[in-house]
Amino acid sequence: MSLRNHHKDHNHHHRRPMFQANQSSCALFVGTWVRDDTYPLYDSSNCNSIDPEFNCQMYGRPDSDYLKYRWRPLNCELPRFDGVEFLLNMRGKTVMFVGDSLGRNQWESLICMISSMAPQTRTEMIRGDPLSTFKFVDYGLTVSFYKAPYLVDIDVAEGRRILRLEDISGNSKAWRDADVLSFNTGHWWSHQGSLQGWDYMESGGSYYQDMDRLVALEEGLRTWANWVDTNIDRTRTRVFFQSISPTHYNPSEWSTGGGTTTTKNCYGETAPVIGTTYPGAFPNQMRVVDVVIRDMHNPPFLLDITMLSELRKDGHPSIYSGDLSPEQRANPGRSADCSHWCLPGLPDTWNQLFYTALFY
Hints:
The chain has helices at 83-89, 101-117, 169-175, 213-231, 284-294, 306-310, 326-329, 332-335, 346-359, and strands at 18-21, 24-27, 31-35, 69-73, 94-99, 123-126, 131-136, 141-147, 154-157, 160-164, 180-183, 200-203, 206-208, 238-242, 301-303. By secondary structure, it is α/β, with parallel strands linked by helices. It has one domain. The strands form 4 sheets. A 7-stranded mixed beta sheet has the order 6-7-8-5-11-14-15, covered by helices on one side. The protein has a 4-stranded mixed beta sheet with strand order 9-10-12-13, with no helix packed on it. The longest helix has 19 residues, at 213-231.
């Protein structure tokens, strides 16, 4: 497959999407986290659409400084999120997040951000699987999440789950008519054992019990990319791809400089990494995403949140991820969630960048 020869370099900052801010181009995704006491943008107790596993304050997280950081790009200030402007600009439209639970994390964040600024607006929530929908009734705006952790289809045949690396026809029916689409994938491709979401992969009419996971990701992403290039009318639909959301399970990645680490993961982390770069490894999956998107005829806007999220080792639910048992809480080395993100928290910044790309 084509993956092997691409991206030997570790610096992918040379192709950043730019936007005009004060007449100068702004590299949205390179910058630093600065403390801002006007944050967070909403209170979790006022937003009932947050799932328990993201609702860290409700489930006992004792610190709150992680809520007080704002992303500052190196050469501009981001416009502040305005939920009423979002409603007015998107009146009568459909926004859909498609992907895994990181997409759900962002979907719930956006609902809370808009709702907190328009508290009188009538709303409706319909939770389902794979599609969940939140409606801002007075504006005719629908903000949906469609669960498709691999983007491509997964079918059950004779009791076996078949991951169809070359077929996206089933899932794509759900998102074909959206006005704004934001896709993400990544985490489920590396799962093994009981967490693995498939029994066989199917490619070119052959079935595989396993293959190089990055090769599989690339094949699935190329199927998605071809569908987007062929089926999306860009005069009508805005398309985003959210880059790989990093995890923080290995403290040696951020504890460079000889400091001793007291934890096995993100548990107990209360502040971001200082500076503009992350000392740990860059996700290999992101190189696959870069390669596939670069080859598209009509590429989506890459919401490149990987590096800025890597700096936020403090933003995960850890052991404050829903109703864990006392035994689970006492063993953060085994039970801490260092993949998802607290709400309010980091996904609010993803949505601020999403908002900036949509409207500025």
